[in-house]
Amino acid sequence: MAAVPGRERKPRLQAGFSFLMLALACAGIHLARGEAQATEELESSASVFPETLGAGRRRALALVRSEARIHEGCSKPAPGYKLKGTRIGRRRMDFFVDSSSFPAQGASSSQAIFEAVRLAAQTWSSQGPSVPRLVGRKAADPAGAAFALDGRNTVSWGSISPFAADTLAAIQLLVDSRRNRVLEFDVLLNDNAPWAVLRSTEEAPGSSAGPFDVQNAMTHVFGHILGLAGISGEENCASSMYHRIAPNETTKRRLSLGDRAALRRLYP
To answer: Which of 18, 30, 33, 74 is the most buried (most CB within 10 A)?
Structure first.
């Protein structure tokens, strides 16, 4: 499988995890046969998630993967959606954006990066008073361990090891297993992928060259955090939750009919 275009990859944490492909079944991410490690094995791995969970808590992990080019003709209403089985149980969740970890080859300023992430969150939060507010803040200090269970929600860039080379983002949710409510989240974006903050007019259907748009990818990521799962099928390629992200794509910045219907189910 082709790797995400960009700089030469950093050494992996463990050779045994090489080219690992994993996603929770509830995340709706499709895996290549024979290349997945058992979810429970990875989620209990001390090399990736060193903290021991307390009683009544579990992890949910979702991986967001890339594809070579944008689907052409994705202008349909995209009515489909899938739910993960989790939801945010509070009216507001603050998160910190470590824009200082943005890849050095990225031409966008730290303010533009932060604004792109903030707008991605606002796309969902603005859909009605019952939808939780996701409020971004600039991180005063660089983020520590990407998946630390420290009571702090973070968005940062870093080495995506030990996940597969075409993984753009890894999302860890800390979930109250009794009520299936999200308590905390951490998002790690692949710093070996080419990233930028694009103008919406820069989308180039059919093109396999170019950077991944920060706002486009993070709109998809926040959908996972709110409780939506990735979906497949050509009829849903215009959805923010379509399960792969392409270079030069900005389509996912705008919610589809299915995305909005899912929100109404989750947060009536």
So the answer is: 74
Beta strands in 23-78 (DSSP E): 57-66
Q: Place 31 in a pLDDT band, splitting at 50, 70 and 90.
A: very low
DSSP string over 26-84: GGT----TT----HHHHHT-TTT--SPPPTTEEEEEEEEEE-SSPPTT--S-----EE-
pTM: 0.82
CA distance 133 to 127: 10
Q: Is the pLDDT higher at 255 or at 48?
A: 255
| 232: exposed, middle or buried (Cβ count in 10 Å: 0-12, 13-18, 19+) | middle
CB 167 within 8 A of CB 221: no
Q: What is the mean pLDDT of the chain?
A: 80
Residue 93 to residue 136: CA distance in whole angstroms: 9
Q: Predicted confidence band at 96 (pLDDT cuts at 50, 70, 90)? A: very high
How are beta strands 181-190 and 154-158 bridged, if at all? Answer: parallel
Whose structure tokens read 């103008």? 199
The DSSP secondary-structure symbol of 37 reads -
CB 230 within 8 A of CB 263: no
Distance CA 30, CA 189 (A): 19
Q: Are 155 and 96 in contact (CB under 8 A)?
A: yes
Check whether 19 has a pLDDT greater than 70: no
